[in-house]
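Let us work through a complete example step by step.
Step 1: write down the sequence.
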Amino acid sequence: MIGFVLADLRRLWLGAAVVVLLIAFATALGVAVTLQERALRLGSARAADRFDVVVGAPGSETQLVLSSIFLQASPLPLMPGDTLARLAADPRVAWAAPVGFGDSLGDYPVVGTSTVLVDALGGLAEGIPFATLGEAVAGAAVDLPVGYAVKPTHGLAGLGGQTHAELSYRIVGRLPPTGTAWDKAILVPVRAVWSIHGMEAGEAQEHQHENEEEHAAQAVSAHGEGDDHAVDPAAPIDELWDADLPGLPAVIVKPKTIADAYRLRQDYRGGDTLAVFPGEVLTGLYATLGDARAVLAAVAVGAELLVAAALLLVTVIHVGQRRRQIGALRAFGAPRLAVFGIVWSELVLLCGAGIGLGYALGYAAAQALSAVLAGESGVSLPVVFVSGDAVMALALLAGAGLFAAIPALLAYRESPAAALRA
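Step 2: predict the structure and record it as tokens.
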């Protein structure tokens, strides 16, 4: 029977190929949506695992996390500078690292911080940490050599940003790969960022760092020519924080214990500060992402049902056209079960090939999309199968078996005499 099935498929190879491709494309849509949503969850969760608590000014929790952890450009209000000093002196805090935004070099954000964050990101794979205001550490994905002179642009490149002429940073070290957005960042001393923007000690104004849209229209007026302030690049960095500091958009905090993390979030959640757990904020984003995945999954199921209905119609017509062949088989002594098995096996084989190809295409599509997103954000997005995917594949095969039984039953009930007279 297997030989007959294979010979029949070879004879009708073009139609068989079309059936396989239709099933494959419908399956690939659902697989790609599932794998990509899982990759976004895993990648973002791993990227946020390194950061326990983020403290910023009151506002959007989601935007605070996206800006401070994933380095997405967006205006953030500044909290009072003494918050950093209080956190650094808090006995419940293992370390506290400031985060200052606003400048870039091409697609690489220039982030003001401290050496403690360099250590928290895995130390250095090459070179030394910055020790003066004119030194910088590059992320693993920054395609610039150690020794390169970085002349940052205020805001984002390509949007009319003004290059800071008063200071250039020299890259002295490189971070190891972390799989986070920090792989594409250039880390510089936060005091250099304050100085180059003329933010004097004690400032706590609600200064907004322009995003793409605001910067194009406001860069010159807000930071006009000559607005840069001279900075001595050889001046040693000072990471002893006191209460007389400029305002900050965010501080990344490492608590000593889990209990300390909850107490810190409670104590710094109110008034002029907002403390959040990045993982907790991402959970809310996952809910939204899950809703979007459910919609796309429903679209994929609808596409599969339409393909199944079309294939059923085509198969029934095909069985009708093969009545004389089926009648001949019966006349030569083929039992009804053999005829049923031939028709059923052909359809199951085609559906199985389509499902297998669909999984391969869906995986390839998810890998390609993850590579593009990882290249843009720096966050590694792993595309992986889990046991539930195998269960879904088996469920699709079981559905294909039930689907194939309909035309097989039509052939099973066909009378040999009636089929030969057709």
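Step 3: interpret the result. Residues 2-44+285-421 form one domain.
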